[in-house]
Amino acid sequence: MTDDDKTSSIPAPAEPLITVDVWTDVVCPWCYIGESRLHDAIAAEGLEDQVHVRAHSFELDPTAPTDTVRDNVAHLVAAKGMPEEKVREMEGQIQAMAQELDRAYVTDRPMANTRGVHRVMQAIGEAHGVDAATDFFMDLQRGYFTGSSDPFDADAVVARAVEAGLPEAAARAAHAGETHDAQVEADVREAVQMGARGVPFFLFNDKYTAPGALPLDAFRQALRQIIDEARAERAHS
């Protein structure tokens, strides 16, 4: 038997049984909580090699300014008309939820328009696939909520895109709005057509939708049901 014969006789790894599409924004605190719960549920069910998570674009506040960065508290006070005390109370509550998940969460963060980040994610996805785009986006989001990255620093975002394999010129063009705006719109439109009014918004195996940051137990129950269905379907295929 030749080496080629040996290679061809090795079975290809099975495709994951569950695909989770998540519409998310880099500055969305409930996305950070929901995605953390999802990943904890996957680990608790022992399904790390059976779940494929794919990120999609959705802007939490498309009206946020593109030329001004202010802190998140001031942004919500101005955009939603909420009292500052109420905003800080809400941030403290989300921080407590994150701490329950053993996740860091800073309550004072920069805030501006996120469209440029979404365009860069779309450019990475087109060039290197959805997994590379998802890794880029989730890493940026985690860094935002842990205080280690600023998604409104264009040079920092471009540098991360280059690390993901995107040429610098392509990353800068996408961030500036010269490319990939239509792809962002298409992602948002797809979610809205399925009933999404905000994020996070989850789609399991192109069949079941789940809006919002579900509790950990709800994610675990959903994963158990879907994996059982998927295994039964694969056994009969």
From TrEMBL:
Residues 19-223 form the DSBA-like thioredoxin domain. One of its GO terms (molecular function) is oxidoreductase activity. It comes from the Bacteria. InterPro entries: DSBA-like_thioredoxin_dom, Thioredoxin-like_sf. This is DSBA-like thioredoxin domain-containing protein. The lineage of its organism: Bacteria, Bacillati, Actinomycetota, Actinomycetes, Micrococcales.
